[in-house]
Model the fold of this input.
Amino acid sequence: MKIAIYGYGNLGKGVENAIAKNSDMTLVAVFTRRDPASLKISSENVPVVSVDDILKWKDDVDVLIICGGSATDLPEMTPYLAKNFNVVDSYDNHSQISKHFANVDKEALAGKTTALISCGWDPGMFSLNRLYANAVLPDGSDYTFWGKGVSQGHSDAIRRIEGVIDARQYTVPVEEAIERVRSGETPDFTARDKHTRECFVVAEEGADKEKIREAIVTMPAYFEPYNTTVTFITMDEMKKYHSELPHGGSVIRTGKTGKNDSHNHVIEYKLTLDSNPEFTGSVLTAFARAVYRMAQRGDCGCKCVFDVAPVDLSATDRSELIAHLL
Amino acid sequence: MKIAIYGYGNLGKGVENAIAKNSDMTLVAVFTRRDPASLKISSENVPVVSVDDILKWKDDVDVLIICGGSATDLPEMTPYLAKNFNVVDSYDNHSQISKHFANVDKEALAGKTTALISCGWDPGMFSLNRLYANAVLPDGSDYTFWGKGVSQGHSDAIRRIEGVIDARQYTVPVEEAIERVRSGETPDFTARDKHTRECFVVAEEGADKEKIREAIVTMPAYFEPYNTTVTFITMDEMKKYHSELPHGGSVIRTGKTGKNDSHNHVIEYKLTLDSNPEFTGSVLTAFARAVYRMAQRGDCGCKCVFDVAPVDLSATDRSELIAHLL
Done:
């Protein structure tokens, strides 16, 4: 199947790598808002095309994987592109998903395309595990822990403080909180109980470090509700120790069954990822296969990971899966 | 939806408990091979019916959950019942699943019913996690660890030894092996590397305990390939400390992405279950909901967990799931 990538940042590169791992897929084009001549991609013999020319590719792309940002790109991009292409996006603004879903659904139905939104690991694989665990244990409690991993949004927030040259923020789950949940307890946690925030900051020469620290730890919503540590480092240390984008986390559901609810069960799904964008790109790519198959069956409109039968994600024959993976 | 249970052992009781946790389901009958008058079930006002009369219930049961054993019951029961009912079973003989699938498919297609086989946690939830993880990380390695938990088959094997009154066998995963896999190593394990077997045995008075121990640890396939410990206890201790049926385990996939495969990822799905039959019953019940919906859409034939879109497992509206669980 012919796959194209729209947007060539970290996520687009992750998708490019993932496509190379799937022998039933070919990367046919990378679309960019930049000057195509200025963009060098890893894949050989794959054209880099201006987004202005994308409609010319309508018949040559089976699925378009949209690798834009959730804040401003995807709410515009995905509905627009879904009119003409089968698409997958990674829209991750949880509170606005229903609105995005409705916008994309309208265009996909009009264009008779299949569009899958909010794919990745959260939303995405974590959502799937929340749904399965809730269906199996209706009487229970859900917990999600994130990290240890780099939060781009929190890193950006620190970079906007006066005197800061660069910053990296790690979200770290509180191990004691995870252990309480794993043991079957159902605590009501505050934000502070569940996660701490570790910040590594490169300051301008002569900057007031105590003032920067104070600006970080008192920042509402981003840092104030958490126990936050701030460590000042050099630019060399930043490049040497903090250039990667690891992430991960756990979705845990505990639930009761049996007479007098005497039996407890713990379902945990845990990800430990060296590269957030490469793993997210791998998830998008697997779901692109399902979108292709759903589109071939005429199953149009907006979809999410909940709508996809797992068999459609695999390059392997159903009979092989039943014989060897079931 | 109207659910019936076929077979009232530990698993049937687990399903009965699970149905009570799902307000969109009603238990309408329990079918038994025993004399119905001799069977007292937990639910009030639910008829206990002889299996000989089951065809009379054809129009009054939406989904029949078959709670028989995999060794001899299900290969006969499920095809026979699928001719007339939408069914779910927990067939767990991995090497024979394709054959069972074909037998059930033929009858379900002839009867225009929907039949879902090999549901539970392994096969079942573990299979799903193997499939998702393989689709997302095509370049990787799979590991499954079981336990700590009671293996009925191994317990039964010990009970057949002369001089043994009762026995309980726990399968225990080797923690060092799990840690190696979690760290991203991809070892080739022997059976002995991955699991140990802990046996608790009540012997007849005057029995030769050393002979019993030797018979256990040298038993081919069951115990010989493992490090096995045997502890003799009294019947009182057996009842007090070993009357429960806990189980669980982990499905782990590790895989590589990125340039030069420099990034490693670990996906782990872990279950810690106080009661194996109650959790298995809970999984069967959630999938019974999906079978009902697939049958209503005319999606006939034999299915497995891979064929079920997750949205069909939930009692909650799709729009609610998208708004709150995605």
Summary: The domain at 125-275 of chain B is CATH 3.30.360.10 (Dihydrodipicolinate Reductase; domain 2). The two ends of chain B are 26 Å apart (CA to CA). The longest strand of chain B covers residues 247-257.
